[in-house]
Write a structure and sequence with these properties.
about 60 residues, mainly alpha
Length: about 60
């Protein structure tokens, strides 16, 4: 289990990076797979929402 917000953010940034790479490949391959790209973008948006939530998970202590 993640112990603090910094660890959570690192984890989310890693996931976000992976999604961006997958999306880039899907587009390069001729992307008639719009549903896949939509799903990736949805997941990307969810991760961004978690990263930039307000108020943050911790109070900065």
């Amino acid at each position: 289990m993640l112990s603090n917000e910094k660890e959570l953010n690192v984890n989310l940034f890693e996931r976000l990076h992976l999604l961006k790479r997958i999306k880039k490949v899907a587009i390069k391959e001729g992307a008639t797979i719009e549903e896949v790209i939509e799903a990736i973008e949805s997941e990307e948006a969810d991760i961004n929402e978690m990263l930039y939530q307000n108020p943050p998970l911790t109070d900065g202590k």
